[in-house]
Amino acid sequence: MKIISVVGARPNFMKVAPIHRAVKNFNQLNKNTITHLICHTGQHYDKKMSKIFFDDLELPKPDFYLGVGSGSHAEQTAKVMVEFEKILLTEKPDYVLVVGDVNSTIACSLTAKKLHIKVIHVEAGLRSFDMNMPEEINRVLVDRISDMLFVTEKSGLENLRNEGVSDTMFYFVGNVMIDSVKHYLPKTKISLILKKYSLEEKKYVLVTLHRPSNVDGKEQLRKLFNLLNNIAERRKVIFPVHPRTKKHLEEFGMIDSFNENIILTEPIGYIDFLTLTKNAELILTDSGGIQEESTYLGVQCITLRTTTERPITVEIGTNQLLGNDLDKAESAAIAVLNGNKKIGQIPEKWDGKAAERIIERLKG
Ligand code: UD1
């Protein structure tokens, strides 16, 4: 069996790493029956958005690098398709495995499907029901053309059923992103990131913002800027800045006028970021994955978005969804800092074995 797994953007790397490890373990017991190749589209290309994750996650150098880089959605998607088709025609894999919801995910699944190669989607079924999000368009389309769908939380099963996907095509396996958290958690003990920024455990707020709806427009970014400055009156804030966000903070003249209690950094690698997540008193984010990681780690999280495709993190986890009213978000953040914490549980099957279940199912 030959599988090509696709990675393109930062949130993909920690999802493919456990799959690669599970294949390796399977092959040790079964005399190399799966060939697993990794294709990096190059959607993210900065060292700190890409290479550092290969090192931290012990991923091998990708077998194929497409080098597509940035561009409009159409340009990026089209460039990946043209380059990926060449690889598929030469390699003729049995499966293309895609993860998550980024442009590389839709580009590679669509290319494979048109060549009648089976598509596996890991992290299927998630829905924000907001078609203004590029990721939601990608999720819906990828699921529609996938042959095997691996689901992280129960809402995903319900969504796929509601869209008419046959029960025989999807499997509830848990969350590969949590496989990575569990596997690499011991390494956070040797991270020096807290020391580097003079942060104390459970005494700082971690911030990440990169959604176009939050950072591309001046008015919304100004509101978030004010919110962060107000939080910084009470706690140290560390804010690793995504390239998209940096560009807009510079463009709107905000980058140099943050409260001095806010530490702005470059994007941070996997182990150091996991260390920051685990030890934060509170996280303010608009990321998808961080909602899940904080729920697994029992860390308080306020999601600065109006919708989430990961509702389990709000229903039973430590996440609060407060994007439509930033005054309310600020009050909720202050309440957390005053000790009003949400007690959470770990969702079903988020046990570090999702990738193993996927490989078992593929060989079953
Ligand atoms: C992409 C994903 C998003 C994911 C995010 C994580 C899509 C539609 N969006 O958004 O779901 O949460 O990655 O980061 O696929 N840039 C660099 N260096 C890089 C990569 C990007 O400077 O290595 C800059 C470029 O100016 C680029 C911009 O960031 O135009 C946006 O990058 P892009 O890949 O288009 O989308 P993200 O906002 O990163």
Report on the structure:
With 364 residues, the protein is of the alpha/beta class. 45% of the residues lie in helices and 16% in strands. It has a seven-stranded parallel β-sheet with strand order 3-2-1-4-5-6-7, sandwiched between helices. A six-stranded parallel β-sheet has the order 10-9-8-11-12-13, with helices on both faces. Strand 5, helix 5 and strand 6 form a beta-alpha-beta unit. The longest helix has 21 residues. It binds uridine-diphosphate-N-acetylglucosamine.
Q: Profile the largest sheet.
A: 7 strands, parallel
> Which small-molecule species are bound to the chains here?
uridine-diphosphate-N-acetylglucosamine
Number of strands: 13
What is the residue-averaged pLDDT?
A: 97
Straight-line distance between termini: 12 Å
- The tally of helices reads 16
Cross-sheet strand order for the largest sheet:
3-2-1-4-5-6-7
Helix vs. strand class: alpha/beta
Overall outline: globular
Please tell me how large the radius of gyration is. 20 Å
Strand content: 15-25%
Which key features would you list for this structure?
single chain, 364 residues, alpha/beta, globular, binds uridine-diphosphate-N-acetylglucosamine
Care to give the gist of this entry?
The chain is of the alpha/beta class. It contains 16 helices and 13 strands.
Q: What is the fold's blueprint, element by element?
A:
Elements lengths: L1 E6 L2 H21 L4 E6 L10 H6 L7 E2 L7 H19 L3 E5 L3 H12 L3 E7 L9 H12 L2 E4 L2 H9 L7 E3 L3 H9 L8 H4 L7 E5 L3 H4 L2 H14 L4 E5 L2 H9 L10 E4 L4 H10 L2 E4 L3 H9 L3 E3 L8 H4 L3 E3 L4 H12 L16 H10 L1
Parallel strand pairs: 1-2, 1-4, 2-3, 4-5, 5-6, 6-7, 8-9, 8-11, 9-10, 11-12, 12-13
Helix pairs in contact: 1-7, 1-16, 3-4, 4-5, 10-15
Bound molecules: uridine-diphosphate-N-acetylglucosamine.
The site of uridine-diphosphate-N-acetylglucosamine has 19 residues, from helix 1, helix 5 and helix 11.
